[in-house]
Amino acid sequence: MKQRGATRTLLVAALYLAVLLVLGSTLIPFIGPYYTQVLIFIGINIILAVSLNLILGFAGQFSIGHAGFMALGGYTSAALSFYVLAPLLAGFGTGGLISAISEPAALAVSLLVGGIAAALAGLLVGIPTLRLRGDYLAIATLGMGEIIRVVILNTDFVGGARGFTDIPRWTTFTWVFLLAGLCILVVRNLIASTMGRALIAVREDEDAAAAMGINTTRHKVFAFVLGAFFAGVAGGLQAHYLQYLHTNSFTFLRSIEIVVFVVLGGGGSITGSVIAATVLTILPEALRGAESWRMVIYSALLVVMMLTRPQGLMGGREFQWSWLLPGFKKK
Amino acid sequence: MNQSPAILEFRNACLAFGGLRAIQNVSLHVGRGELVGLIGPNGAGKTTLFNMATGVYTPDSGEILFEGNGIGSLAPHQINRLGIARTFQNIRLWGQMTVLDNIRAAMHQRVSTALWQVVASGSAHAIDEERLLEEAREFLAYLDLTRFELEYAKNLPYGEQRRLEIARALATHPKLILLDEPAAGMNTGEKVKLMDLIRRLQSERHLTVLLIEHDMKVVMGVCERVAVLDHGEKIAEGRPEEIQRHPQVIEAYLGEAPATT
Amino acid sequence: MSQFVQQLVNGLSLGAIYALIALGYTMVYGILRLINFAHGDVYMVGAFVGYYLGRLVSAGAASSSPSVVNFFLVLGGSMAACALLGWVLERSAYRPLRKAPRLNALITAIGISLLLENLGQLVFGADPKDFPTLVERTSLSVGIVTFSNIQLIVIVTAIVLMLGLQYIVHRTKMGTAMRAVSFSHDASGLMGINIHRVISFTFVLGSALAAAAGILVGLYNPKIDPLMGIMPGLKAFVAAVLGGIGNIPGAIVGGLIMGVAETLTVGYLSSTYRDAITFVILVAVLLFRPTGLFGTTARAKV
Questions:
Q1: What is the extent of the structural domain holding A129?
Q2: A143/chain C closest Cα distance in angstroms
Q3: Average of per-residue pLDDT values in chain A
């Protein structure tokens, strides 16, 4: 009984990985580069949406700097790969077997470092601002995003205003969905734990949470830093897929797009974030040519949603297997 | 007067908001195991005193001691961990959480599973969670809330919300509990049950209780000692029957007769 | 030295514009505890209304009228239009959320902001437009400092509007009601103040001031586009935070400081840091004095 939780987690994880590997080697070559790209963007957006949901939906802290963390993670991991890891790998030679092992290892290191860089930035912004109440975090994260952008623009080392080119292409379909799965798993298990309940208590009533012994600042900072970490990882994935980074991809609007995923899907629902990120990644692709209307629709949706259904699509609920299989009752 | 050793003590505590002196030179002694009432007209500073004892406000001068140690400058969560829990005048439950989760979240501080254990839903985590669930259900049973277990807190009837606030405070394992107008909005039957509960907190759980209450029947019915605040100052203190006859207290309440219903 | 004084003058006229926008932020925050993110876009709409009105008056029969009259026509028309816009926004988007969590109102404000920007791009076109010349630019010199008549108009107009605002807030019944509501909604309601009307009035007032800022910036720096409100909006917000959000004189001082800081940064460092300085100031304020220069500590009510 005691071991069942961990065992089940491992089992599901192994099964998921197997499915990804099979899909990666059969489906992906079959559907061609365009659809692969759409799938990869879906995966990256799921990571962004679920990680922001942890901050916004569960902890109730309004961060509009997720793109800033993404940029920091992306540029850090890209620089690491470009200047250190790729030359190192080139030294090993490019045999089939060697690169089959060394490339994923290099990507893993690179993403981890990118995520940590973003998490550190989150810590730096979070500690002073999360002590304060309410909207200061919004404006501070916005400011942080802009500062990161200006600094990158003026750093020649990572291409400055020209953009960062020739980043090795290590991101694959399997990697993106492996990390999306990891992100969902971490957030889901966290939320179901005592830590998650404390986090939601902070969202529901911060004063009451403090009066019940919950260290509110610590919990908010923790959610914020973990969210920033995954945003950084998402940035790294994007960098190693597009092989090119420019600060224009990480503006305030990108942050807002992620907020829209969370709000439409429903703050506090992982399922909602996943659905919203998926649909809203496909939708613009389907509506190509109507680009100028896209943001009008996004913003109108945001307002209408807040006025009519502020709890979002899922209203804080999660997907249950019992919806599909009426006989399958979860205890 | 100070027979029993103090669990909570205010020593010349003062607090001002801008020019307004909310608490002036208040000294108050609450002995271990006592059941003390705090009364006074609206705006007298009763809740402010609670807020000072729980770390929401830091006194401008004077001291607040809990079990002999100064707590004036501690944060609310630190004070709770030392053993002071409270309820709120205007019920502040975590509305979008279930009744059970309101209790479990309040027990949070006593779980120390490592993060990776949580994420992997490992065995230590599972044991913790089981123990937590069991204990949380005991608190719900104690306050007769078991049948609401999976209800959202915001959907409970008013009286049950007040009880859930007490259950939540108990779940933090306090030594001292501060009740802020626990009888407000209750009908006579509920009040009788509440008085019984307060007495049981003292006799069965060996808690010290300090309560703010406007309902004189409740105050006189359960409190062993009563302190009276007016305009931020303590104007009287004594046994309930002494307080009822105290000329200054009667004067403070003039025009605002104590509610007797 | 003369360059420094020159930068100071330029900074003050830019700062006066920020201050006008900051007033709207600070008033709305004071009364609703809401960062009205759409406020910078109201300023943009103000500039565009001025653009069309300006073309109308300078092309139409009024072309013979003196430029001062044209300026006041455009200023008044734009302020009226934005006052209406502010009223509509409050009425349709913010009022329904009065009892909702503040997060919802904040997200709505961002949604409105994006909506105005993107509708602006569809309606006005995304390319920058030249604001019509309402007043011919001439140079004036006092001692070592040279400034344009436009800068003079900007500063004088801003001062007049700020004095007017001070009058409204401190000398009229509505102003007293505004101060009461910002102190406590409940108590004001009990005193018979129509809170909804006071909040509407606050939006009207703030939006009119933002429109004035839009016209002044059109005179000063005659390129306008639908996204022009984003940066000045943020800067004005930072100005409001710097001055102590909710504090009217604080917003004015904050705006002036932001303007001067920006021109000095551009003048002595590099124009690439023009916008970054804003956020450096913001971070510094949040770290060292989160309540701003004139703010008082807001105590949480339990």
A1: 39-251
A2: 5
A3: 88
